[in-house]
Structures are given as structure tokens and as C-alpha cells.
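User:
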Amino acid sequence: MITPIRFKNAEQADFVKTLRKRVDNYFKSNNLRKTGGFSLKLKAVVMLLIYTVPYFLMILGVITNPWVMWAMCGIMGLGMAGIGFAVMHDANHGSFSSKKWVNDFLGFSINFLGGNVNNWKAQHNLLHHSYTNIEGYDEDIAPAGILRFSPHSEKKKIHKYQFLYAWFFYGLMTLSWTFTKDFKDVFRYEKMGLYKQLKTSLKREFWLVFATRIFYFFYMVAIPLMLMDISIWQLIVGFFTVHYIAGFVLACVFQLAHVMEDTDFPLPEDGSVSNQWAVHQLQTTLNFAADNKWLSWFIGGLNFQVEHHLFPNISHIHYPKIAPIVEATAKEFGLPYFSENSFRRALSSHARMLYQLGR
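Assistant: Predicted structure:
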């Protein structure tokens, strides 16, 4: 079982109250729902097509050139990441639709991409969002020992070079989920009491992972071998390409939000942090490339991570509009609002942070 951390600072209560009121007024005055609208539904269809069309073009024999097929696998990887960013992510925060069954259905899409929905909710919703950048709680800053994302975690000699090799391991993220991590996590999260919070059980999650993984390997491995004129090595290369591109894109975007030079990594004292939870999110989270509309569209508005962490129940399609409200309110109360104005500058900052953490 994990011990909850308390966030408390009475002096910051006015900030939290004012920010919530201003954001709520934005939706009321514009007669808007906080969930996604038609544009989000259209994006969901586009992302699904990016993933499935290349698959069927190869399965049905429309595309047979090995180099073109490899390119199709690359496009599938982008589609896989896009579904994760713009469809599954909103749905599992309950912000894709006002209808619970729609969120549940689209959130379950992760199981058909080689993951598991409640393992993702346990790590992302319960741990990462609740305890952002807190050592021993936020598993997003606790990767395999070859990487060091927190100044409070154990430092090894090899970390000196992580600013060079980390990028390769980013691409292995979804492969890890598919082959090992989910099977281990069903036991870990049960022991930590997270499944109880999610109103599920070890037995249900184990068999869910097992059954949906069989389906996943059936359509990604068995069907291509049966219907396509390819060797086992070509299949391995294609499968690896899909996952590597998806994993690399997903990992880069999520790391740029928290493992940065500006963001904080606070340690609780006596089981508490001396900040309101909302202020904690401001200190541990960073936005990037806010003016890059194409990037924002593809990654589901996750370049507006500050807004997402403060209001995870609001769909990402609204973040560009509420961002000025959040920034102005934070500055009014003398609080930080971290941002980098381009994706390139954010990547550079993350690389420098990897370098610093290695030393």
C-alpha cells in the first residue's frame, strides 16, 4: 500500500479558488462543455485511419514492396502514438466525451495497441498526476536503472552518458509494456492498493492483459505471417519499427513536460508538501511550443501540460484558450508558469537536464 501525501498551504488557497472560478467562467460565458466536440471526434477517426490503413494495405497485398512496407510500419507507429495522445489519453481522463461509455470504449483502445487500460490509469492518473515529480511515487521519473530522471534517485557511473544513449531507450517504451511491464504491474498495483481505487481486481486485470495480448499478437504477428509473403525477419523488423517510432515519440513528449531544467522535484516532509496541489503542478510541469498548432493537434494538446495537469478533466481542445487565463493568474499571484517557446528548445533543455542528472 502507498501512503498518501498531503498538499497544504493555506496562503495559496486564494490562487486555487480564483483560477478555478476564472476557468469555469470561460466555459459558462462561451456556453461550452469541458469535454471534446466534433473536432475531437474527427481527430479520433483520423488517428485510427493513420494506424489501420497502412496495416490493411499490406495485409490485403495492395503494397508489396519491402521498402514501402517498412515506410507503412513507420506510419503505423505515428498512428499508434496519435491514438495514445489524442484519443486514449483524453478518454481515460474522462474528458473525451460527456458519456461515460464513450470514454470507457475509447480508453480501452490501449489494450488493442499492446497495453492495458487500468495499468495505465494506475501509473498515469493515480500516481503521476497526484504526485508529479515526487521520488518514490511518480513512476514516470522512475525508469529502468540505466536512466536517471530525478536528482533524488540513485546515481550510477553509466548515467554520466545518459544524455547520449537515453534517446535510444525512449523508443523501447511501448515494447516494454507489451512484453513484460504489464504482466509485472498487475501484481505490483494490486499490492499497492491501486486496483482497489480503480474498482478492479488482480484476477480481472491479469486475464484482461492475457486475453487482449493474445488478440494483439494475433493481428500483429499471426495474420501478417499467414497472409503476407514475408519472412519472420521482415515481420520482426516491421513490428519493431511500429513500436520504436511510437515509443520514441510518446516518451519524448512526456519527458519534455517534467524532466526539465526549470521544473522542481520536491521531497515531502513528514508526509506532506508545503504547497497546494495546484501550485505543486505549476512547479513541476512545463509547456512547450504553444504556438505550434500542428504539433499541438497531433500530440493531443500535451504541449500544454500545465493546463492538463491543473485540469485533467478538461479536453485538450480547450487548452490553447484557457492557457492565457492560467498564465495570467499564476503571474498575478507570483507563481511560476514554465514554458519553452519551441519544441527544439524544449528538447535541448531536456538533453541538458539528462546531462546534469548524470553528473
